[in-house]
Amino acid sequence: MTPKELVKRFGWDPRRAKEKIKLHGDDPGKLNTVITLLREPGRPELVMKAAQWDIIRNEAAVRRLARRFFGRYFRVPASLAVQDGLDSWMVMEHADASPSYGNPFTLEQRVAVALFARTFGLSDVNTGNVLASRAKGLPWMIDFEQAFGRADPNSGKHLPDERIALEKPWMSRFERNVIEQYQPAIKAWRATLKLPESRAGIQADLVAAGFTKPEAAGLLALFDANAADLDWTLQNDADFVNQFVARNAAQR
Prior knowledge:
Layout: H1 3-10, E1 19-23, E2 34-39, E3 46-51, H2 53-70, E4 79-82, E5 88-93, E6 97-99, H3 107-119, E7 130-133, E8 140-141, H4 162-165, H5 183-194, H6 196-209, H7 213-228, H8 230-242, H9 245-251
Antiparallel strand pairs: 1-2, 2-3, 3-5, 4-5, 6-7, 7-8
Helix pairs in contact: 2-6, 6-7
C-alpha cells in the first residue's frame, strides 16, 4: 500500500496527528523499530510502527494468519502497512488492553496460541506482547516481527531460567502442563493445514502482505515442517515450563 492509499482508507493522515507519544523507548529489543501512539482530536487512538520492510511485512502477514485461523481465541490489532524500504511503516488500532504478567489465556486459548506460535515460527512472545482486555473480552496478542522461523523439538530446550518460560504463554506457569491436553487440537490442526482452501488462504495472506509467490510457497513448506514436529516441540515446552510450576503455585 502507498501512503496515499493509506490516507484514503483512513480518511486522514495519521503521520500528522496532533499528539505523538513514543512507546517502548526503554526496551533494548526495539532498537530496530520506532513505535508511536498517535492522538488526533475526534478520532480513535492509533499506533504507528516504523521499521524496515521485512519486519513490517512479517507483522502484516502474521496478523492475517492469526485472524484467519485463530480469531475465536484471541485478537490482534487491525493494521495497514506501507512499503518504503528501511522507512516502511504500519498503522494499527490501539488495543484497549494492558500487559498481562500472569496469564490471561484459558486452557483452550493456550492450546490455540501454541499451535499458532509454533506453526508460524514466532519468537520473542514476551509478557509485553500478551494483553488482557479491559473490557473482559478476548485477550490480545501484538508484536509479531520475529516470525517464520523453524520451530522443532530443540526450540523447547533452554537453560533453566524462568524468564524464558515467560516467553511461552501457551504453557501455564501455575498449573502442570500435560501434552495430552494439546494433542487432539494438534491432530485437528494438521488436518486443517492439509485442506486445499487452507493452503490457498495461507498463500493469499502471505502474498497480500508483500511476499512473492515463490517465497509464500517456501514458507508454506516451513509451516508444514513446524506442524509435523508439534507433538515433540510442545512436549519440550511443557517439560521446560513445568519445572517452575510447583514453586509458582505455592507462592500464589
